[in-house]
Recover the amino acids of this structure.
């Protein structure tokens, strides 16, 4: 491990020249990455937030940690974390990691690539976390009671994700955040709070990587125990659907797990009461999103008046004096965010929340039913993903999940139908816009839910 080269505003010359030489390559490579948030808009340039040299670029293998801002039209630009490897040439096994060949600047004549594909850089990250290293502005912290063994073999998870994950010897998994923002990251904050509460449903963070830049602090990555042999809920649900098997027992157990996590979060972190003053802006936001969605997706327009009643009914209930409790929640709960271990135990993962929402909004207390609504929508998606759609399967899963939730929480989400319908409608509206833009073939899935949620016999 080496040194911090410079930070934005620093006096060194290496980093500005480094970024200038990488600029044309990154403009082509970055928008193609699954985790790049600014798709559809050109990258007009980059500015450096921080650059740390982890291995000297003049060696056989060089390694840079970069935190940079990607500038695009109509916005201040998002910040991204990159781990850039430097070699004379890439071996065939690293071909998928290629960023490009540098023609000028300090790396002229060398090849640069996404170093997470490479064993040696991944090993260096684990060693830094194991030793609680500090390299320039980078610092690693961790739970002193959890030991990290050296020599664990890394492998990059290549499935499409909004971040990047490396598994170490089936013992740990390191999640590196690609799109980063200063401040507290809920994907570290909430699992730490749940660990203090003794909640076994969420793997407790073992170590984490942070960076201080001027007055800003960034959470860059979290290392957690790897649930060996686990299957994510989405894969498991599709497997059972393909076999024509019932998923009710799994859905019920998942409902109990969700309620246990909600209960632990409510004990560990402050809760608030939502009355008319708090519900009104929440409803207004739902209405605004519906109106924008109806403008963007013509197929939604016939349903808009009926869907609006799902939101106004919630405001009316609040005006009559009804209140709700809000707390910290997962924020983006669906089957893919749940793992079932070989023992049958469910775990919840990925507490980052919806990446498109601002960090401060993701950390706001919400009614727990928001997570419930997300899971109910996920059952619906699974049921429509098989060769023959199975709405009856989804209905049974929804009922089993809510029953399991009630067993652990002491209250059934279905006993507050107005609140549940509002959050499920808001989620379905979001899905309509997403599918229309990115996966038009999937648009009938949320539209079928829209048809159901707009039915006049619903409360």
């Amino acid at each position: 491990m080496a040194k911090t080269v410079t930070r934005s505003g620093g006096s060194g010359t290496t980093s500005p020249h480094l970024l200038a030489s990488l600029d044309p390559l990154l403009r082509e490579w970055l928008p193609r990455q699954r985790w790049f948030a600014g798709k559809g808009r050109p990258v007009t340039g980059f500015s450096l937030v921080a650059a740390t040299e982890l291995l000297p670029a003049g060696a056989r293998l060089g390694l840079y940690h970069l935190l940079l801002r990607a500038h695009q039209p109509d916005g201040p630009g998002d910040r991204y974390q990159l781990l850039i490897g430097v070699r004379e040439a890439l071996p065939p096994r690293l071909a998928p990691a290629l960023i490009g060949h540098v023609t000028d600047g300090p790396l002229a004549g060398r090849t640069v690539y996404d170093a997470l594909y490479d064993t040696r850089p991944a090993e260096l990250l684990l060693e830094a976390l194991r030793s609680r290293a500090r390299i320039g502005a980078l610092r690693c912290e961790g739970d002193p009671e959890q030991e990290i063994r050296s020599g664990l073999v890394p492998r990059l998870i290549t499935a499409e994700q909004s971040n990047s994950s490396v598994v170490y010897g089936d013992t740990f998994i390191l999640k590196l955040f690609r799109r980063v923002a200063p401040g507290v990251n809920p994907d570290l904050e909430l699992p730490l709070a749940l660990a203090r509460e003794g909640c076994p449903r969420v793997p407790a963070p073992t170590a984490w990587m942070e960076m201080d830049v001027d007055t800003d602090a960034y959470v860059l990555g979290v290392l957690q125990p790897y649930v060996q042999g686990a299957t994510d809920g989405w894969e498991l649900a599709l497997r059972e659907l393909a076999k024509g098997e019932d998923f009710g027992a799994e859905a019920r157990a998942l409902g109990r797990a969700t309620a246990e996590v909600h209960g632990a979060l409510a004990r560990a972190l402050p809760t608030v009461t939502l009355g008319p003053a708090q519900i009104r802006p929440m409803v207004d936001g739902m209405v605004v999103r519906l109106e924008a969605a109806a403008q963007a997706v013509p197929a939604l327009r016939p349903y808009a008046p009926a869907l609006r009643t799902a939101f106004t009914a919630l405001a009316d209930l609040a005006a009559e004096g009804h209140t709700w409790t809000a707390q910290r929640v997962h924020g983006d709960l669906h089957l893919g965010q749940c793992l079932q271990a070989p023992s049958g135990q469910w775990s919840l993962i990925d507490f980052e929340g919806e990446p498109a929402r601002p960090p401060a909004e993701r950390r706001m207390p919400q009614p727990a039913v928001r997570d419930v609504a997300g899971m109910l929508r996920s059952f619906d998606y699974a049921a429509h993903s098989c060769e023959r759609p199975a709405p009856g399967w989804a209905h049974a899963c929804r009922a089993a999940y809510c029953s399991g939730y009630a067993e652990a929480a002491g209250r059934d989400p279905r006993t507050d139908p107005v609140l549940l319908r509002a959050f499920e409608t808001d989620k379905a509206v979001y899905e309509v816009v997403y599918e229309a833009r990115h996966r038009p073939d999937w648009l009938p899935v949320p539209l079928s839910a829209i048809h159901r949620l707009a039915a006049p016999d619903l409360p």
